[in-house]
Structure formats: structure tokens, C-alpha cells
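Subject: for your reference before the review

Hello V.,

The reviewers asked for a structural picture of the protein, and I figured it would be easier to keep everything in one thread rather than splitting it across files. Below is the amino acid sequence we used in the manuscript, unchanged from the supplementary table.
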Amino acid sequence: MQDRYGHTLAGEALEQSAQRVLEAAGEQWTPLRRAVFAVLAAEPRPASAYDIADLVGRAEGRRIAANSIYRILDLFVAENLARRVESRNAYLVNNHPGCRHDCIFLVCDGCGDTRHLDDDSLGNALRRAAQTSGFAPTRPVIEVRGQCASCASA
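And here is what came back from the structure prediction:
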């Protein structure tokens, strides 16, 4: 799997990259963080903290509190290992954690499929517009709701 920047990762390479990014930020790659990342990387659609807690809990044979998952997800988002789909309150793994791009999410209202596009020109234009208005932007959040090709043709 490769995106237009030529740096999308999967499997072991993705996990190793995520571990390097987290450790470079001075954080530990704990067994629970590894398990959360693995579940998130395996999910084809955005997953909620509760979904992740359930999946990790089943795999480990113990209950995992959603608030623990939220803390890990907040860290993952801050360190660019995951992306939050705001309209769904759900998360997707970032398949290129070493690179920072503003994502445009394409969210299907029919099946829930969520794709992301990297478009630095759009993100930069939004930042400039915000700065021109005297606003100090942190990050643009762009989500386009509609129907994926499969749902649109059904």
C-alpha cells in the first residue's frame, strides 16, 4: 500500500516506525500501547476508544478501561501515530507516522468507510486564511461527508 508521497507503511514496518516516533518523543512503547496500536492498525474503518478497549481486552483476557485507551489515543494523535475523525469520535492509524500532513477525511455516510487524502496546499491555505484573520491555528480539520463509490452506485 503506497500513497502519493510514496511512504505508506503496513505490518511490522508500520509498528516499528510508530515505536521509533514514540520513543524519539521520549515516550515508552509499552505492551498496552503496542496492543492498542496493533488493533488500530488492523481496523479498516475508524474505531472508537470503546471498540479498541473491547478488542484489546478480548485479546488480553482482561477488561481494559476506555479512559486508558483515550489517554493512549491522545498520545498517538499528538505524536502523529493516529488521526482522529472528529465527526465520528473515532480514530484511524496514520500509515506514515514519520511525516506530518494535514488530512482531508472522506467519510461515507452509508457504510462508514473513511479515507484520507494528504493535501498540504489546502491545509496551508486554511492556515494562511486563519492567520490573516488574526487567528493562530493549531491544525485544520477537514472532513467531507458523502457517499463512497460503492454506496453511490448501489
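For the response letter, the relevant points are probably these. The chain has two domains: 11-93, 103-148. Residues 49 and 69 are 6 Å apart (CA to CA).

Happy to draft the paragraph if you're swamped.

O.
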